[in-house]
Structure formats: structure tokens, C-alpha cells
Amino acid sequence: MLEIRDLKFDPPLLLAPMAGLTHSALRTLLCECGGVGLLYTEMLSARRLPVENPTVSPWLVRTGQENPLCYQLFITRPEEAGPALEALHRFGADGVDINLGCPAPRVRQAGGGSSLMAAPDRVRALVREVRRHTELVLSAKIRLGETLDERGLRDFCLMLAGEGIDYLTVHARLRGEQFCRKPRWEWIGRVKEWLDIPVIANGGIFSVEDARACLELSGADGLMIGRAAPQKPWLFAELAREIYGLDLPRPAMTLPAMYSHFATALLERFRPERRLGRLKEFTHYFALNYSFGHLLATSVQASTSFAEAISRAEQFFRQNDPRGMEEMGERLVSPELLSEAAD
Ligand SMILES: Cc1cc2nc3c(=O)[nH]c(=O)nc-3n(C[C@H](O)[C@H](O)[C@H](O)COP(=O)(O)O)c2cc1C
Residue limits of the DUS-like FMN-binding domain (predicted)? Predict the structure, then answer.
């Protein structure tokens, strides 16, 4: 267990912030499966937060089950910090993270994400201002930088710690590196040696073996899991048992039951126009569990309504997971709920 301020990470397994993926429906599925020590939102625009309605915003909607929850900020100007933090306190955030690693061109052009790593003085001002406005656990999430520059990375990390972040998450890739490249977990080990705050390792963890290898190379205080979360929602519980020795039951849900849980949560909590895109995004990863999963992914991808996507998914599961579908009474979502929530 990791304890920072009054937040317990038990176990120190964190859900990575992922735009379009780490919303309430995925988070509750993960809570059902168990083993997540800290949930995250996707990145949230600090500028827009103060005017968002948390009960309807697809980025903010949250059930009482989703605890503890860290809110990730996309912030570019120090004056955005006060109003954004006031909003996060109102929403009941358990932690705040600053996105300094996102390489997406749109985010970089807006002056956020990984572009900030090239502007340490701007980051210093941002972190200082965020820290000044909150007593919550504060973290930052970075990549290794533009190039492998040990001194530059060290100075940047020490600056963040000096400005009062409580832990640092390192995605072990350079700014321009694709996901197909093996992450440089050994570089997280260097960061760990420089800092006296906890360091969380991120990137490329899809199995217990990956987690063991990453911990061995990095000596990290915890792990953050991204794409494996929608692919294998049970992975956190497996890691909690195998790595951290927690006595967690194996999730009893079949794959169709997990898909059903996710789809039902989308129907219950999201406005019609916000459901289909999120179902497609999740299916892209979840389909990897089946040898013919590309058929599930492409048929859902080609759907023009939520009901059509569900019907195609049902057809896929009936053929590829008949026992799982039988347990579900052959339906993923109750027809009444589907028609009530028709899009
Ligand atoms: C679809 C997608 C969206 C992402 N959105 C964010 C984001 O909003 N904020 C962020 O810091 N990182 C974001 N990331 C990066 C992840 O948090 C994580 O660092 C990355 O996926 C590597 O971890 P993994 O190999 O476990 O997936 C995103 C990644 C993906 C695949």
C-alpha cells in the first residue's frame, strides 16, 4: 500500500487517464472487477471545468462507487488554476494530476501536454499555482521528453518535486515514440533515484509478467495501467493478487457480462449522442480478447446507432461465446432499457 497525504493507494495500481475511455462506465466496470487503487478521469480542460455541470457532463459524471478518483487537468495558464481547483473541490476530487505528457498535436498546439516539458519555467508557474490552490494529493504525468537528455529530465523532475507535487507518473517513452515501441522502463529507475517522492511507472503493462519486469527495471512505487484496462478489466485484480499479495476473489463475470455491464452503464449515464463513440472506443480494445475479435470491432465500428451496435455485438458473442451469452439470457442489454433510451 502507498499512502500520500490522506490518500491510500491500496494496492498502488492506478488507472491511466485516457481520453474517450476513462469515464464513469469503464471505471465502474473496473470497480466491479476490483484491484484498482486509484481511478483517473480523462484529461479535463481547466478553462472549461468551472462551467461544466458534473451531473450531465460526459467527462464528469461519476457514481458513488468510483473511489478514490483523481482528476487530470489539461492546463496552460496559471490563472486557470484557481477556478479549476475550486470546481474540482466542489466535485469531490480525491487527487489532482497535471498532464505534461500528452503528445497529441491538438493538445500541443493549445500549449498543453508534452509541449510543456520544453518550457520548464511555464510548468513551474503552473504547478506552483495549482499547488497554492489545493491541499489534495497533487501529481504530474510526464513522458521522458523530446530526446534522451538525462540532465534535462533530471532538472525537470526535480523542479516538479520542488514545486510540491506529491508523486510523479512516468510514461517511459519519448514524446514522438509510438506505442509499438518497447517502453524504456529502466529510465523510470533513473527518475526514481533522483527523487524522494513516489514514482509510478506507466507504459506497456498488459500482464503479470510485464508488471514484474517493469518493477524490476524501474523499482517504481506503483504501476499505472492504460490500454490494458479496457482490454482486460480484470488485470488490476490479477496484479493485486500476484504482485501485491491481496486476497481478492477472481471476478466471476464472463466477457459478455463485462461488455453488458459497460454498455448498460453508458445507456444509464450518458446522453444518446455520447454513447456510441464511447462504445466503439471500448470495443476496439475489448475485442482483442477473441481470436476473431476484429469482426466484433469492425461491426460495432460500422454501426450508426447504439441499438445497432448492441445487436451486432450480441450476434458476435452468440457465435464466439455461446456459454457466456446463454448466462446473459441471450441479451446484452434489456430490450426495455434499449427502447426507453432510444437514440
Ligand atoms: C486513447 C488514449 C487516450 C489517452 N488520453 C490521455 C489523457 O487524456 N491524458 C494522459 O495523460 N494520457 C493519455 N493517454 C496516455 C495513457 O495515459 C498512457 O500513458 C499510455 O496509454 C501508456 O500506457 P499503456 O501502455 O498502459 O496504455 C492516452 C492513451 C490512449 C491510448
Answer: 14-241
Domain 2-242: CATH superfamily is: Aldolase class I (3.20.20.70)
Please indicate if the annotation marks 171 as binding a ligand.
Answer: yes
**Can you tell me the distance from the alpha carbon of 21 to that of 31, in angstroms, rounded to the nearest whole number?**
15
Residues 6+ apart with CB under 8 A from 173: 143, 144, 179, 181, 183, 184, 203
* 139 pocket-lining for ligand 1 (C-beta < 6 Å): no
Grid look-up 518535486 returns 161
Verify whether residue 70 is a known catalytic residue: no
Give residues with Cβ within 8 angstroms of 2, minimum separation 6.
8, 9, 10, 12, 37, 167, 198, 221, 222
Tell whether residue 141 is among the known ligand binding residues. yes
What confidence tens digit (pLDDT) does each residue in 56-110 have? 999 999 999 999 999 999 999 999 999 999 999 999 999 999 999 888 888 888 8
CB of 170 within 6 A of ligand 1: the answer is no
Exposed, middle or buried, 75 (CB in 10 Å: 0-12/13-18/19+)? buried
Neighbouring C-beta atoms of residue 273, cutoff 10 Å: 10
Task: Give start-end residues of each CATH 3.20.20.70 domain in the chain.
Answer: 2-242
Q: What is the mean pLDDT of residues 301-319?
A: 97
Answer whether 24's CB lies under 8 Å from 61's CB: yes
Task: State the catalytic residue, choosing from 70, 102, 157, 214.
Answer: 102
Ligand 1 contact, 225 CB (< 6 A): yes
Cβ(103) – ligand 1 distance below 6 Å: no
**18 labeled binding residue:** yes
